Protein: Hypoxanthine phosphoribosyltransferase
Amino acid sequence: MHEDIKSVLITEEQIKKRVQEMGEQLSKEYAGKRVILICLLKGAAFFACDLSRAMSIPVRMEFMVASSYGDGTTTSGSVAVRLDVKDDIAGMHVLLVDDIIDTGLTFARVKTLLETKKPASIKTVAMCDKEDRRQNGLEADYVGFTIPDEFVVGYGLDYAGDYRNLPFIGVLKPSVYARA
Ligand code: PRP
Ligand code: MG
Structure:
């Protein structure tokens, strides 16, 4: 374990098992369909790539960047898309992938934007879901783990840009963010 981590919430083995299960489920449900995984950078990069490889059907990949305006510690409620998809997604079945849903504002904003591009369907996939933090009632279609409202890092989740590459999801020691 890393010195800045208080406890491991989800182990590397648990993540691998769950990603495999989700990949198999999605492969069954989307068999025969033209599927595109849209990864919300940066957080979802790790999960989206692993999920794509856990799927046994052909999938395309796209990447988007959406950021909420604000000071970085609190959300402002306004989400801007800074990098849009490159290819035409009309008629495709979209799986919008993120590492975590918190307030739900990112998913809601990006989904609304993608709907204007006329995909055949859009569903949301999140590795972690902090249900208690939701501000808009959004429910993800596929969730890896429902987690408590704690400061978690790893497997794409960062604190000030660090810890994304930890292979597990852990709770950050409060002393780390007290330093800031
Ligand atoms: C984080 C996280 C989700 C989003 C969830 O991304 O990766 O994308 O916030 O929050 P919400 O449900 O309240 O909108 P962030 O904008 O911090 O960027 P990052 O992915 O580059 O870390
Ligand atoms: Mg993100």
